[in-house]
Write the structure tokens for this entry.
Amino acid sequence: MAEFGDLLSELRHDRKLTQAELAKEIFVTPGTISNYESNVHYPDVEKLKQLADFFDVTTDYLLGRSKCSLSPAILEQEIGDGRSWGEIIREVQALPPIRQRTLLLILNDMKTATIIETIKKEKDL
């Protein structure tokens, strides 16, 4: 598993933030962010929660205890016909393995089609 500092640095870079900008968001100095990212020291519980909320990830993800960066709130988010992502995941889990693999094939096909559409639109501009 990745270390806290590496994960924090990756999240910060993904948001295109400087250490100073992140420091301002959670009310610490840029040096503190540098120390976090270098694993010199770690945030207290309140700062850890602030970072998790700011990046919309779990504290377990920040601590390297989980590979999933999704916030638990996403599971409650409704999609489509009023079902939540959590309900959709439970439905997929209940499918036989062959149906799960078929669903993955469909998802991959949809991702590929979306990429192709994006490229076509960019060419037309």
